[in-house]
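We close this part of the discussion by returning to an individual protein. Part of our work consisted of pairing the sequence of a single chain with a tokenised description of its backbone. What the numbers capture is local backbone geometry rather than side-chain detail. The amino acid sequence and the backbone structure tokens for this protein are reproduced below.
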Amino acid sequence: MDMLFSRMLSDDTLIAAWGKVRENDGAAGVDQVSIKRFAGNLLEQLQHLRLQVRSGKYQPQPLLQVHIKKDDGKLRALAIPSVRDRVLHTAACMALAPVLEREFEDESFAYRPGRSVQMAVARITRLRDEGFRWVVDADIRSYFDEIDHDLMLQCLARHVADQPFLALIRQWLDATLQLQTGGTARIEIGIPQGSPISPLLANLYLDDLDEAITDNGHQLVRFADDFVIFCRSEEEAQQALLLATCEAGKLKLTIHPEKTRITNFEQGFRFLGVDFQGDHVRAADADSAPWLIPDKQPAHRVPRATQQKPPVKPKPLRPEASTPIIKAEVAESIPIEIEELAELSPLLRTLYLLEQGLALSREGERLVVSRGTAEVSEIPVQKLDQLVVQGNSMVSTAALRLLAENDIGVYFADWRGHCWGALDAFDTRSTELNALQYSRAQDTNSTLNISRAIVAGKIANCRLVLRRYARNHALEDAELRDLEQAAMQHAAELADTLDAVRGHEGMAARIYFSALSDLLPEAWQFDKRTRQPPLDPVNAMLSYGYAVLFANIKTLIRRRGLDPHVGNLHAFRDGHAALASDLMEEFRPLIIDTTVLQLIFKQSIKPEDFVLDDQAEMPCRLTDAGRKKLIHALEAKLNAPLNHPINGQRADWRRLMQYQVWHYARVLQGEDETYQPCVMR
């Protein structure tokens, strides 16, 4: 009976609603509580709000009246709820939208997921080409201000039987408005523009109008309260206008006589800032230009040829005697700082061919790197685990065969470090283990539990990185950001859907990278995380580092005999190693982010180590010297021994990553009960 009510007040929904409110970054309401202040004790605020609503003690605060200038110079009145009420409005909208979305007509394009102005414009041109040349260009007089509350609730009650939920909507409709003049007034008609739930209710109120027009055979395109009806003749257009006027009257709305007309494509009309004249479609101004073109990839997106392809398939191995098996509960206590200890033998010894024009050939059981006729170096194949070829270098067939015979992964990477191809040694999988993988992938509870753990672990490690660096570097609102991330971590641990887990991870990531932006020196101009392509030096280093981490995890997964393409958190898609993306998440902040931060704060890498070109395919990329600095730092980090023995044996980051891969396999095999992420303290 109260399904919507319960869904609205669930932890997942309230946390996600808070994330949307925070992202919109609106002003404080009548109580003067800002988003920053509300976030100061976020979990307590949300718990108190839930208890108030459930106990029936909740009362919405008055709406704050403000006026903003429209493009035509006129003023638009907005009514702003308090932050607390905006969170609840948003939660209600998130619970209600899926119910109403099934009922809405295809001809409605505003305030709906997966719909846009571009789609509305495309539908108009399609109708024009199909012969619907006559147009009713309609306008509803003061639509939002004229919506009748009783009729609105009747519309809603046809789809929602949840009485507590309906009572809450009634409270919001009949809210009190604090006027700019200082007085107050009760809203008796209309819905406030400024409330997160108003667009959804506005669409619902006009749904009957949409149905009446389309059921009578007319073609409609509606965007909020603006709509156009398309007909094959002027007579049909007149009938459509009469129908729309009558249906609007039933809703106690008025079709504006001075702003509504019957026209055609030859005479032309303007809709959503786009001029339609004959067979031509033009933007009325620069702001409307994007509506005329379909969504395309950004101009600087990396070409398809450089995108990642399936990785190398080394044979499944068991760890050698020197490779430690690490207990998860012990690993959780390992601190980030690494003491200067004697080096361990690297777990994955990697040869990088970074320079242009290098050649790799074979001499017996050795690999020889040459530049022209000069020999650069010589490496016994037994001392190599991975080869990364970046740029234009030649690898002989004999060398490739030697690498394949010794199960050495060969990766071909672009200048971002992303793998676009790999050498497959064929005999790489454990059939029994893969069968368990494919079976567990169909178990939604299993994938959800593992995804929760991965995301919670990643957020916990992000929090640790920020706390460590905030001690020695100025970071505004460090405690507030930690509280917000703690809330996202808690919500991820309790999320009941995979989409909710991903949503909490995304919100936590935005908070985290926003904090990094404030933490870094201004000279580095890092505003936010950008990926394809990276637009600034910090993003270029992060992307390159994540690609290196991805390749290492993928190799370790292959060695264990797992299929790297079958994961949990990351969606399945062709050519993507989802499991590698999953298992690298908890290590991103601990290995890559800390390495990048260390390079910057120690001034080991500088802005001149990057090439900036806004017109290039990659607007920002590392120079050869900069790339070498980053790779040396990453390799030093990956091979750095941890300062605590694990089960009496020493370990480094790669061995810790290997343990997590083996731990994941043991979970599949039922040897470990649940997946436990590597969380540092």
The chain is about 45% helix and 15% strand. The mean pLDDT is 82. The longest strand covers residues 63-69. The two ends are 45 Å apart (CA to CA).
